[in-house]
Here is the input.
Amino acid sequence: MSTSSGTPESWISSFCALLGHEYFAEVSEEFIEDDFNLTGLQNQVPMYKEALEMILDVEPEDEDEEEDEEDREDEEEEEEDDDDAVMRGENGERLTGSYRRASERQQLRLAHDIRVIESSAELLYGLIHQRYINSRPGMQQMADKYGLHHFGSCPRVFCNGARVVPVGCSDSPGQETVKLFCPSCLDIYTPPNSRFQSVDGAFFGTTFGYLFFMTFPEYELSSKGDPLNLASTNPVYNPNPDQAAATKSRSSSLTSTPVPNCSPTAETIVAPPPLPPQPAVINGVPTHNLAPGLGPGKIHENRIYGFRVAERARTGPRMKWLRDRPADINELDESARYHEQYGGDPEGEVFSGDGANGTGHFQQLSRRKKAPVRRRRKVLPDGTATNGPPPQGNVG
Here is the structure.
């Protein structure tokens, strides 16, 4: 394959340009040529050497050409033997098509080998791609695709159009197809287009999704504002409490039988208690990027004629805790809770004493229960055994 400029296109570029391979990044040849990055792949890919040469657009070595010449000579000898042993009819005429020519067998074998090598090359490139996107240059390529919205957005309404990244459910090939991970609801989805159903999820692996957002915590996971007009259906998105109360009042007035003192008016709405100061960053992640699509008000509730369905009903909600998120983010700070229970400074190391002269010690280590010291069993000159040091003085 060649480009419009006349220069031949590399195998990697042509592979990534195929329909359904839009999620792939172009692995650099320097990464592939490093043997350290290919450790362990030789046992997973059949015809590993030929597949690697196809990926790198390397011509076969001279040894392979010599082997091909020897095979060609052997096949020519077989062809002569076939001519001598050709079948003839009752009158001695030659029956054509009785034996397949050696040249035809060679063409069929070459075509079969090429198909096997191409399949092995795709498998090898996918396994290399799994490792490449976890490296710094590969992560940057995927970040560029993420910024251009190449991977699509989450289909969940409450995620507010959050962008997704491709991930795999397994690191072993042949287990699952590629999935899309949403950082807003922390869930995975099947790609909407069927052309991605033939892409193996192991080509992206289980590490990339989480490592990507740890590497780029500054990305905004969801759109600002209310682009999907969620405030009209859920008051949690409406910053005006009076308007939210009016919206809920109008929705309750649609019921056939009004219930006294139960309509959610502005007087009956109890404001939630004020939250303590929220940290800007928790566990290395900005607070506004910590699963913004989860939590109170962002979980769909089934209703029948405006009435909420009981949780114990057959049609009630199930596994609601999967979408739960505390309103107070401080509850997720495990480090602060640990140091609050056991003491110490969550911002730094728990260290006391003078570290310059080596007299300091860690308080946490000192609180650990020490195992009893085992003493070596010693035999005294009189033949008695003791577990401690020998008594002072002469043993008489």
In short: The CA atoms of residues 311 and 317 lie 6 Å apart. Residues 243-267, 349-362 have pLDDT under 50 and may be disordered. The first strand starts at residue 165 and ends at 167. DSSP finds ten helices and eleven strands in the chain.
